[in-house]
Amino acid sequence: MPSVPRKPDPTRRSERSRQAILEATRELISEVGYAKLSVEAIAARAGVGKQTIYRWWRSKGAVVFDSFLALSEGVDGMALPDTGDIEADLKAVIRATVAEFADPTFEAPIRALNLEIASDPDLAAQYREKLAGPVDEAKKERLRSAQRAGQIAADADLDLALELLYAPLYQRWLLRSGPLTPEYADAVVDHVLRALRP
Amino acid sequence: MPSVPRKPDPTRRSERSRQAILEATRELISEVGYAKLSVEAIAARAGVGKQTIYRWWRSKGAVVFDSFLALSEGVDGMALPDTGDIEADLKAVIRATVAEFADPTFEAPIRALNLEIASDPDLAAQYREKLAGPVDEAKKERLRSAQRAGQIAADADLDLALELLYAPLYQRWLLRSGPLTPEYADAVVDHVLRALRP
Amino acid sequence: MPSVPRKPDPTRRSERSRQAILEATRELISEVGYAKLSVEAIAARAGVGKQTIYRWWRSKGAVVFDSFLALSEGVDGMALPDTGDIEADLKAVIRATVAEFADPTFEAPIRALNLEIASDPDLAAQYREKLAGPVDEAKKERLRSAQRAGQIAADADLDLALELLYAPLYQRWLLRSGPLTPEYADAVVDHVLRALRP
Amino acid sequence: MPSVPRKPDPTRRSERSRQAILEATRELISEVGYAKLSVEAIAARAGVGKQTIYRWWRSKGAVVFDSFLALSEGVDGMALPDTGDIEADLKAVIRATVAEFADPTFEAPIRALNLEIASDPDLAAQYREKLAGPVDEAKKERLRSAQRAGQIAADADLDLALELLYAPLYQRWLLRSGPLTPEYADAVVDHVLRALRP
DNA sequence: CGATAAACGAGACGGTACGTCTTGTCTTACG
DNA sequence: CGTAAGACAAGACGTACCGTCTCGTTTATCG
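Output (structure tokens, whole complex):
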């Protein structure tokens, strides 16, 4: 009589339930916030048994994570604008990022996602692989284009470049340590480009 | 029947209880982690009634926060080393910061503190005022010294400078998105100093 | 260093506080019922420190008890009507008792008192001595008068007689096991008088 | 968000938990007395979650009540002895009742039950229907037999008769207003039978 | 009259228990 | 066998009171 939990058979998984759970999760995060999100409420809202959630996800955080992953599923083929002017292009992108952070609609869910990732190394790994990775690759592609155009040092560390560009915004937003304005976006870009100049 | 909650009288507060609570909180975070920290356990460990906690703190997060605040109480008169060489000084400081982040002893508590701050705007404000503020001021003082020495542009935005220096580390650590090595510390300093050059 | 609790000095007792406590107790029993009565609420309502209650009373029940005792303080010199007709006199008295039980104003407090007495042998003893005793004596005096008039057996056990008269009412009221009507009162008197006939 | 409390589904109720709760309740009343009985302790002793108690019972009193109800479940087919001599039979029964009241083992639980009933009209109604009703019916049946035998007036009010017989005992016991002896039992029976004579 | 000691109001304290909420597991009935 | 439903054991939540323990502040004798 083995007490090893049988693994569920993925082929029999109900797609309808899965979708309902992810959608209910997104709704509830917007409505009550992440701190007050409960598995109980997700199951009720999704019209699903709690066991169905526990069968397919390790933790509440994993559900939250997947509910975001599902959103950005079709967004793979993303590419940053490339007008040939790296400064203009980056400012546009960073300003857009700032605007997104400032949008109160995204505030709660993105914060929930980030707290979950910061708490759970497994989710962080998934996050890097499934979400951040592809996006970062697209960003680095634009930087490589700038390298080819001689606007950025050929030997620049592009991972570090991305961190210099995005981390200040991220930190300000997460810790609410200062205003996120377009001017701030521009200033960051200006500084980072100066650091990366050939 | 007034629903206005009576405010506790701070003059009658038991210092012994306050200390016991903060200490118990620190111990428990180290032992069971922040996610499993409960007010009930804090009270039990501190030999204190739960009401004594709820009387003086708004939330579990506020207790956690204060338990850290208490630690760094005497650290006000801090000042960064100033050998006259801003690059060497910054590299030393940033390498030290990286080492601190890597120390597994501090990992759990600092992460707990950061999650708490990221979740609660009130605590974030307190954090800036009581903890980050003074520390940042000391850091900026060192940068001002570099400005006077002509090593950094006289009109540099020092708040932004700090963010460029520290946010990449912070992000890597929080999201575990990359290794935190002395080399990385040096690279960040090199880039930022290039951006700030007169 | 004796840990024997100093006994309070009765001569210094604040009559104003004592009255306020007893009055607040009576009010609160009427308002929230006995089950939800708390020492905390009594103290608050009376504008009195909790210690002042604990200094002078052993328990909440003792306060409740005293609050009733205080009411019936001046009622010592009571005597039952004596028209010479024991049947008519008893019916009048028992009907009055029934009416008192039925009065919703007295319902809650009397019930509280009785529950307290039933729970606490000490209070029961006090009750017999200070409240029930004198009243019963007056009732027995009327029965003795009936004995002298030859309406009741000369050797009747008057304590038993009182119980036969009052206990049926008491039980019906306490357990709500039947209606308390004037007809019921008369029926009880009729039966008991038959049992006591010479 | 409906505030209507979901009703539990009685078909899924765990009989094992129900029994454990009722048994733990009986044990605890005997051990610590009714006043110090707590839902928390019942749940712990029964190895049951508190919610399982609150799911199926309105109040602590209801649990106490049911724990007694459960005891006297099979006792329906009760009948009083009928030797043809109503006086002897009643004396035997009333003496037995007196003895039961005097038994210290039953003292605490029965008192708890009575206090609960006296406090809560709902429980009182249940008590009459489920416990007192059947028992009283059996007693009245014996009295009817006496009526047929011409030992008691044919038109006697049997409910009143029962109250005259039992209420004096009940009152003495509950208020501890006098000793409960076999002689007392006999005296009550003698008086009541005199009152009921044809 | 002024010292001093007790009772006083206020309310913080260590605790217990409350009744509710959520977690993760288990059971039942259906498809 | 996955599922919706939901009961279950466990235990934390935040609140209400308990009875004890300081705090100053009256108050009321007594030196």
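The two ends of chain B are 67 Å apart (CA to CA).
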